[in-house]
Fold these 2 entries.
Entry 1:
Amino acid sequence: MSPDLTTPAGWLPVVFMGLMGVALLLYVVLDGYDLGVGILLKAAADDEKDLMVASIGPFWDANETWLVLGIGILLVAFPRAHGVILSALYLPVVLMLIGLMLRGVAFDFRVKAHAAHKPLWNNIFWSGSLLTAVSQGYMLGRYITGFQQSLAAQAFAVLIAICLPAGYALLGAGWLILKTQGNLQLKALRWSGFAWWGTLLGFAAVSVASPLVSERIFQKWFSLPFIVLLIPIPLATVALLWIARRSLHRLPLRLGQGNEYGAWVPFGCAVGVILLGFYGLAYSLFPYLVVDRITIWDAASAPESLLVILWGAVVVLPAIAGYTVYVYRVFGGKVSPLTYG
């Protein structure tokens, strides 16, 4: 039973779970597309790689800030859950951090490297992006199954580890459609078509597995009246995927004629699918931070501590959000080659 939500001990954990959820959602969307661009780097020609990296150059550092914020909230607001989650995911977390470090190093070195060394740094940037995405997918799969050790749970985590990079690639390709022109833009359309299938498989797997993990989650989705109220979520997800697919078929002719109308549709649909999937996952898990084991109230810090942390969040969150909006406004429009003076 949840505490009285009119008291600080009741409502503060809910607030911090919401803040953490928003931070992680923004990370998945924002860093998801630049990880996707890194994953697609392998399929591009040498002269196109510079434009692809330039398209994410002003944004990728700021995008990763949301991951740091989300993990930081988990640590300070929910220390008990932080210990359980990070202990269960120690290896994939380490692999994710290695991937992020490889990306950071390669991003700077590839620009200054001699021509003979540049392919090496491109490959490191690609491998770091893929390693990060695969690690995150495996962590998501393990988290959804409540860290079960069964063969089925492990197989599910591996499936999500394969599908999440496809979702990121769909975001990345959609971003390139928006930010580039010419042959690279048309290539991004083809990449979107391939990534679409992996994204569809991943969301189908999560939708099927989540109710099977827990009887409580099954009841939340498939008992009346909830099944009637929640049916718009999967229907809207299918509709967005269909719109994205339809747009990918129509855009090549339009873009080939220099008409950018609707170029935003694949990226916008991919973001919409992520939003709906995130909402469905949050609904399934709430109020648990670890499925059927630890609730947000069980894991929360003392209300006095949360109040102090909340004041810090009131200052930090608008600053990060304002900086992010400012950067995207300043560097809007089509990409130009990335150079360092």
Entry 2:
Amino acid sequence: MLYVEDVELTPNPHALKFILNEILLNFETRQFSNKEEAEKDPLANGVFAIDGVESVFYMDKFITIEKSKTADWSKIQGPFIQFLKIFNTDLIPKEKEIKVTDEESNELLKQINDILDKQVRPALAGDGGGLQVIGLHGTTVKIRYQGACGTCPSAISGTLQAIEALLKRDINPSIQVVAA
């Protein structure tokens, strides 16, 4: 049975990170910004059925829920915990096999992802979020924040600058990082 082991605050005042007793995904992250995006994912779709849910992000052993500014957590948490108790994790869509594309085989992109995997993504996951590299054009890296980080003011400004400074220092001084 799936259940919540702990709940953590995130830097986003409208998002909570729910740590679960089971691993949901081993490799992927899944971000849903609205109910329509979650139609084919029974887990996310079930969470969106709860009034006040604005976005759902999950990976590994946690789910981050962002609520609307007017919603009350007390009306979301109870139904969410009840939903998890009856949810069959076998319904979670299978993860796709990871294939390396030409772009991912690019040495610069490999270096960027290696640094992000070691120094940035674990910290973001600790705050209930994630980071996806959308593309690399020359030395401009385009990223998309996920989960609690998606609409968090500190992610949009401070974290973006910190990531850029890290990549400039460790890889190439001409790297620029922009949010998608």
